[in-house]
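Data deposition worksheet. Section B asks for the primary sequence of the deposited chain exactly as it was used as input, without tags or linkers unless they were present during the calculation. Section C holds the resulting structure in token form. Section D is free text for depositor observations; keep each observation to a single sentence. Incomplete worksheets are returned to the depositor.
Section A, Depositor: J.P.
Section B:
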Amino acid sequence: MIVAIIQARMGSSRLPNKVMLEICEKPVLWHVVNRTSNSRKIDKIVVATSEDRGNDLIREYCAENGIECTSGSENDVLDRYYKALEHINIEDDNLVVRITADCPLIDPVIIDKVIERHIDTNSDYTSNCIESTFPDGLDCEVFKASVLKKAWKEAKLKSEREHVTLYIRNHPEIFKIESYKGDKDLSEQRWTLDEKEDFQLIKEIYEELYNENNIFLTDRILSLLENRPSLININSVHIRNEGLIKSLNEDSIIDERKKEMNTND
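Section C:
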């Protein structure tokens, strides 16, 4: 079995309630689930939100729309994923696909290619964002359920608890890690949803390309941006992986404080 777990919460500091913002009369979360469901490899989709009451709207929306939803820690997202695995009673050799709900342009064809690479190489972890060649917002990670469980047991750093797969990526001596790269380097393009400018760009793309009967894919987005290059400038001031960089900096601050305490002792 291959299960996609989509992490989603309302409490984004940069763009509050972003997963329930509406594009073409549908919440962002619906678009992410819908596009992921067009994967030919994925058997099951689960939304993993946090137990915080601020996420009640996500739980209610999922219940009303027949989307399976689990709840876990707000900040320990690794634990939230582990709780989702417990809920669906997944086997250790089954595969988990990690998608985030701030990727409303996620491409099901790319998801399937990452899954294929993972299976073909018999890896523990495969991703298209280790060596970034895809636009930010098409990130997809695939790993064995047993690998996530090991990470849940072993990860200690705050960043490794907040960013689900960081412990795995930090330990290539333990895990067999595989990268999936695109034919062209498009990593400077930003299609993720973290800022109001991101929402403006993504909304423009949807208004041009969305058709409820067909999923528009990466090639059509690229064609649109080629014909309307000014769109790329809408959110170009923001950098990739801002949240991860912040977490890693916080790890450094904690380490420095520990060193100071040990010195004082």
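Section D:
DSSP finds ten helices and nine strands in the chain.
The beta strands are 2-7, 22-23, 26-27, 44-50, 68-72, 95-100, 125-127, 141-144, 177-179.
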